[in-house]
Amino acid sequence: MALLPASTKARARDLAKSLGGSLVGAATVGMLRTTRYFDPVKTSDFFARATQLIGPRLREHRIGRANLAAAFPEKSPEEIEEILMGVWDNLGRVGAEFAHIDHVWDYDREHPERSRIDLPRSSIERFDHIRDDGKPALIFAAHLANWELPALAAVAHGLDTAILYRRPNIASADRIIQEMRQVNMGTLIPAGRDAPLRLAEALKAGKHVAMLVDQYLTGGVEVTFFGRKTRANPMLARLLRQVECPIHGVRIIRLPGFRFTAELTEEIKPVRDAAGKIDVQGTTQAITSVVEGWVREHPEQWLWLHRRWR
Asked: Band of the pLDDT at 110, cuts 50, 70, 90?
C-alpha cells in the first residue's frame, strides 16, 4: 500500500481541522440562535443540568479538582466535588445567558426592587463618579458568575468603554458572538499585537478600559495566587505607566432565581517603585489579590477549569 507524502498528510490534517472547526462553529451559531427563542430562566436551568451531567466526564473536571485541592488544602474531597458541581452549574448558565445577553442586564433605578440586578448604593455612587469625573479609568474583572455582565453594566451606566476580549478560534462562532456582544458592550478590542496601542489610545481619549485579568499568561509577570506562584497578564499595569488614572474592579455574584449582584470596588491604589514609577509586578499582584478575595467568597462561581498554575 502506497504511503501518502508528508505534505499531503499535512494538508489532509489541515482540511479535517478546518471542516471540524466549521461544523463546531455552525453548531455553536445554531445553538445560540435557537436558544434565543426559549425562556431564558428555563434554558438556564436546562443548560446547568446538562453541564453538570457532562462536565465530570471531561478532562477539565480533573484540572478543576487539582486546582481546588491546591487552593483549599483544608477542604475534603466531598467539598471539592460540591464546588466543582457548582462550577459546572454556573458555566451552563453562562452559556444559556449569552444567547440572551442583550436582555440579561435589567436594572431600573426608579424601581430597583423589580430589577434582576442588585446594585449596592455604594457601587451606584462609584459608577456615577467615574462616569462624571472627566477622567479615563482602568477596570478589571474576573471569570466569576457571568463575566459578560461587567461590560453591560458599564454601558448601561453611561461609561464610554473599550473592552479587551479574546476571539474564539472558530471564525463563524466569532461572528455571531461579536454580533451579540456589540448590542450593549461599548468598543470591542480583540486581543492581539496592536491591542496595547489601541487600549492606550482609548485611555488617552478619555475612555474607560476594561479587561479580564484572572487567567494564566505565558510570559506574564510572576504573582502569588492562593499561596502559589503563577503568572498573570501585566497589561493593565503597563497601560497605567502610559496613562495614569484610577483603577477599579467589577465583580458579579450570581444569586438564586436568575438574579445577580454587581459591585464596583473603591479605587485600587497602584504599587510604585522607589522612583515613584508604577511597579508593574507589584500592581499586578495587588489586582490578583483582589481577585483571590472574590474567589474565596464564592469559589463555586469561578472558572477553575483551566490550568491556573503551571
From this structure: confident
Please enumerate in sequence order all residues whose Cβ is within 8 A of that of 205, keeping only pairs 6 or more positions apart, or say none: 136
Q: What is the pTM of this model?
A: 0.85
Instruction: List C-alpha distances in Å: 114 to 107, 158, 243.
Output: 8, 21, 39
Pairwise CA distance, residues 47 & 145, whole Å: 15
- Name which of 150, 260, 251 is nearest 208 in CA terms: 150
CB 136 within 8 A of CB 245: yes
d(CA 212, CA 20): 29
Determine contact, residues 212/231, Cβ cutoff 8 Å.
no
Give me the torsion for CA of 32, 36, 42, 48, rounded to 10°: 20
DSSP 299: G
Where do we find the cell 498528510? 9
Short-list 267, 302, 301, 304, CA closest to 287: 267
Tell me how crowded residue 6 is: count the other CB atoms within 10 A of its CB.
Answer: 8
Helix pair angle (6-35, 171-181), 10° resolution = 30
Please say whether the beta carbons of 37 and 82 come within 8 A.
Answer: no
pLDDT tens profile 10-53: 544 543 444 343 444 445 555 666 676 678 888 999 999 999 99
CA–CA separation, 134 vs 26, rounded Å? 44
Contact present, 130 and 161 (Cβ < 8 Å): no
Residues contacting 1, CB < 8 A, separation 6+: none
Average pLDDT over residues 72-96: 96
The per-residue pLDDT for 79 is: 98
